[in-house]
């Protein structure tokens, strides 16, 4: 599991470790790891470090010191290193080491900085470290902009300048790195957009913090973690032991959502899918997924909050394409009145946003909104949620008393009193209609198979993203990606499970 921490947690661990080491040891370790990564990138570009041009953007703190010491190491290997000193002061030891190694350094001048950065093969962003917060001030903001214009590689030191290391917030200009070399442990802001998108590929340098780190602030499951959690049938398994999931989805207008959510559940390994809806979506599901046991709901029975005609299930998926009229509200009320876990998605979220009392239930509940749906649940502008995804996902979990899976460029899972989980699989091609319906079906199958809401949401997001990558690449071995449809994601799920 990839665990991540806030700035305060990292600083406390660093202080505890530094108390046991000679002065400067920690910075030396960080600079050495940073230089190794940069040397590898330069070798990949030109076959060598010697003769490469490196621009070091150095702030006045320890982050700038890390960058200057790394620059000195590269200069000793023959790189032409020039530092732009952004602060009113520079890290004395790092600056002296750079100059002693043959590197150059000068105070910020915009014209000179533009020239230095523009001709660099690699730009090292050491402007602001994990202690930075809020928008970058000048000349840091200008330098972040110049770094964005360079044709060379941009490597961020610990965290891209302008990105809040604890949350991933970006409140103004920020460096957009190709690679971020982070020290000691992952920072939460490197896993959550918009910070994750600015970080590029993240390389972790071990500097010995492990024994001093507390419980993580956030985590990202690996393939191995998900493989360990997934329910697997045994010799004594039957369809009932593997989990029966009920799906209340679709309407005369939205039959596709029903087909897709059932497909997600079938392909994710549900022992049985019981699908309940109006006659038209039932007809489409029967045609596409004959494995599903279907029921045409009698509105008069549903209005009495009864789903007895459907049969016993271990979990429910509620909402994809259901509509929001009186009949849909009655179905939602009946499903949420059951004593089994329920996933609420799509139109189900619109219904509970108008009647949040429906979420007051004893059994576990997982909601799977995108930012727009979460904005209605919390009465918060969508833009604010997208800028602070982690904060609002946690707030929703606490206020609503549910597990929350916030879909989007970064999928975040939150449950009160647990570290947030961040999904790292997926592809931008997932941004197409119906993929969320598939996700709800996957989560339903896992929930019916015995996973908790927290684990079912995390594993479903991971599988969903992995299946999308496989579908976009035309198979697990493909490299280039192409557009996909939602049904492609469902069809790729068995291959995604095999890949784990």
From TrEMBL:
In the N-terminal section; belongs to the NnrE/AIBP family. Its EC number is 4.2.1.136, 5.1.99.6. K(+) binds at residues 63, 125, 161. It comes from the Bacteria. Homotetramer. InterPro entries: CARKD, Nnr, Ribokinase-like, YjeF_N_dom, YjeF_N_dom_sf. This is Bifunctional NAD(P)H-hydrate repair enzyme. It catalyses: (6S)-NADPHX + ADP = AMP + phosphate + NADPH + H(+); (6R)-NADHX = (6S)-NADHX; (6S)-NADHX + ADP = AMP + phosphate + NADH + H(+); (6R)-NADPHX = (6S)-NADPHX. (6S)-NADPHX binds at residues 62-66, 129-135, 140, 158, 257, 321, 370, 437. AMP binds at residues 407-411, 436. Catalyzes the epimerization of the S- and R-forms of NAD(P)HX, a damaged form of NAD(P)H that is a result of enzymatic or heat-dependent hydration. This is a prerequisite for the S-specific NAD(P)H-hydrate dehydratase to allow the repair of both epimers of NAD(P)HX. Bifunctional enzyme that catalyzes the epimerization of the S- and R-forms of NAD(P)HX and the dehydration of the S-form of NAD(P)HX at the expense of ADP, which is converted to AMP. This allows the repair of both epimers of NAD(P)HX, a damaged form of NAD(P)H that is a result of enzymatic or heat-dependent hydration. Its cofactor is K(+); Mg(2+). It holds the Pfam family Carb_kinase. The keyword Coiled coil does not apply. Residues 10-215 form the YjeF N-terminal domain. Residues 222-500 form the YjeF C-terminal domain. The gene is nnrD. Binds 1 potassium ion per subunit. Keywords: ATP-binding, Isomerase, Lyase, Metal-binding, Multifunctional enzyme, NAD, NADP, Nucleotide-binding, Potassium.
